[in-house]
Amino acid sequence: MTALLQGLRVLVVEDEYLVASLIEDMLKSAGCIVAGPIPRLAEALDVARREACDVALLDINLAGERIYPVAEVLAQRDVPFIFLTGYGTGALPDEYAERPHLHKPFRLNELLGVMSNLVKATAN
Fold first, then answer.
1. I need a surface site. Which of 54, 65, 71, 120 has the fewest CB within 10 A?
2. 55: number of CA atoms within 13 Å, CB side?
3. Going by CATH, does the domain composed of 2-123 fall within 3.40.50.920?
4. Which tens digits make up the pLDDT trace of 78-92?
């Protein structure tokens, strides 16, 4: 599973420092290249518009602001993304309800499994 993720450039948008650090460590242990973590919406929008990445991990709530403008930019650029949430699945608007998501807290194998599936699906 991790062989598929080796060298993958992953944009991480997460505002909680400890969660962001944990995610960064998880990704690096799988051989990913981490862009971020980015804690604020404005900066995340800027990076999503201009930086190249293979996949993104998006915390739904950034200091009270919703991540959906970043998701829209990434979708327009055909960059796959995974929502990270402490909320239930019902928190996602209808247009994103079918997108991959992980409920916090999650384990390394859950994160890597969802990322691997997303990368496989995107490659086809």
1. 120
2. 27
3. no
4. 999 999 988 665 667
